[in-house]
């Protein structure tokens, strides 16, 4: 131990360099290949250091929020840490939405921000903002580096903290004088933080108790989330094995789609506010619930005191604060999904063969009844494109291709979650926790950078896409052939849907007025624009989009008044969800108390 | 239990807990802890902090908070997952902890009222740190109830200013944190 330490010291002892050079060197030592950023006064020394090398490729974005979303898309589609470099003041404050998004969805991001020189901190200097103060609430951890001696340690520590335990964004704020200062660089070590050691292996006795409970279940269900994806491909593999072996039904949160193949018979579809009828009813009626890497978010549970009232709940999460936060767990297991799943699988296989497990036949029969309700059905049309139809065609025409999907936020996002089928993890990038409109286009850029040969599609709404539209310029500059598939209904659709349900159809400010001509806009950026408003032409238009090796904006004109169903209305339980064909007067279903909820 | 869908449950009883938190004494750590409480809507009744192990740069933060059992569990879990937090211990879990607070009181008065203030302060075992012809500053250290009682009594004897340190606490017995 001490030997390796002294070796490391001798190897790097004479490596004196500037703070800016340390930043770039640390990125290289951490294996960073891509960095999303935007230059400015307080990071010029780092940009100069980047200029002198070509291992780290810098992707110039057009807005710092987009830099973070792009890093998120990169991280989520590749499993690596996403990296961001922005300047002080507005550079840092613009990044705040992206950082908050990464915190809510547990995405590993390291964001380096420039800061005014240390002697100017606190003087309201030009482009000064209290970045560590502002980002304290929207990062997993953050640092202000005031001594060059601390910089190498902090740089490596940031990568360790961002990627270990429950992942999240980490900010390193580096004053300009520290970027110029000279110091000794140190390479990363194995345990990069002196005390931060998240628990990864679950308590084996609790896992044993969980497996025993599962073996006795008559109406079990797996409820899995983004934690499985974050844990890595091994977790998804183990999950598949466990689900097949147990024969239990499985549902997933928005964040967890792809961890279990959507095309499999045991998969009930997504659960929650816009989840499937079968998934939500199964959650309500189950007797044993196995939550793996999900957090009982309010979009999932609906009315919490009526949430799955008859079940015993097993909750596996790497973050101890997730357990018993919203829903009391009967068996809480703190640990990394892959580790716990491995133990579970071993114990399940080791169960005594002579003990008869309850038959699940009746339970599957009940589920078949709910499935027969065909909850995603919609009224087809041959004159106007239904948004659901557009996504069904997109799914059919991209099948078998190496596809990554991102979304913006709103109706289109929920339809995409319902109608696109993800059979592999890391293929689906959407803003779940924060619900950030403007996420999808920069996230698509990040995913395309990570997977240059893949087909990357941002399923968008015409309102969301305008929030980070400037990133078309980024896509063009870096020759990223992303596809923006806009379901254009000329409304902020989800806002309009809620106004229809809760506010007497008074569509206050939710009409997308003065929209640009998206085809011309695509062309103005140097991309390709395609418009389609006829169901009969849709397949050919989608194929044209897929076959265009350049950035494309597809303006898909869809039914303006279509609403997103099924839906659990505010303040209602899982078994009180409403379906599209029963949704004549749902304003009357939601009571006064429900109207106050989000 | 702060889901937007949860009904406030008046049935759940609340209790007072004293938490000891060992943290890296790095810039911003106090703001991180205070921000956690304000951001998540928890109560802080008292918060004291000071570096306790200089060579390791460790500080001990003592927090007195009130909440339901579930809230206290959340508070502890949320504190423990902060990166600079080493250990969180609920001193109230292990029976009543030793808790002390120091208070300074400035009392202004003349004649009998002044004599009475001094006599009461002596009866409480307070120290007199400063005296003029028309004022005293008393120092009193004690359990929270005693501090409250002393302040209450001095209120009738010309009390004009109070400064309290907040609670310092430790669990009983041989076991160290």
Automatic annotation (TrEMBL), chain A:
GO BP: isoleucine biosynthetic process; L-valine biosynthetic process
Chain ranges of the Thiamine pyrophosphate enzyme N-terminal TPP-binding domain: 17-132
Cofactor, free-text remark: Binds 1 thiamine pyrophosphate per subunit. Binds 1 Mg(2+) ion per subunit.
Cellular component, GO annotation: acetolactate synthase complex
Catalyzed reactions: 2 pyruvate + H(+) = (2S)-2-acetolactate + CO2
Entry-linked InterPro entries: Acetolactate_synth_lsu (IPR012846), AHAS_TPP (IPR039368), DHS-like_NAD/FAD-binding_dom (IPR029035), THDP-binding (IPR029061), Thiamin_PyroP_enz_cen_dom (IPR012000), Thiamin_PyroP_enz_TPP-bd_dom (IPR012001), TPP_enz (IPR045229), TPP_enzyme_TPP-bd (IPR011766)
Record domain Thiamine pyrophosphate enzyme TPP-binding: where: 409-556
Domain Thiamine pyrophosphate enzyme central residues, every copy: 207-343
Family membership: Belongs to the TPP enzyme family.
Official protein name in the record: Acetolactate synthase
Source taxonomy: Bacteria, Pseudomonadati, Pseudomonadota, Alphaproteobacteria, Hyphomicrobiales
UniProtKB/TrEMBL annotation, chain B:
PROSITE patterns the UniProt entry points to: ACT
Keywords noted in UniProt: Amino-acid biosynthesis, Branched-chain amino acid biosynthesis, Transferase
Keyword Amino-acid biosynthesis among UniProt keywords: yes
Pathway assignment: Amino-acid biosynthesis; L-valine biosynthesis; L-valine from pyruvate: step 1/4; Amino-acid biosynthesis; L-isoleucine biosynthesis; L-isoleucine from 2-oxobutanoate: step 1/4
Purpose: Catalyzes the conversion of 2 pyruvate molecules into acetolactate in the first common step of the biosynthetic pathway of the branched-amino acids such as leucine, isoleucine, and valine.
PANTHER family in UniProt: ACETOLACTATE SYNTHASE SMALL SUBUNIT (PTHR30239), ACETOLACTATE SYNTHASE SMALL SUBUNIT 1, CHLOROPLASTIC (PTHR30239:SF0)
Name of the protein in question: Acetolactate synthase small subunit
Species the sequence originates in: Chelatococcus asaccharovorans
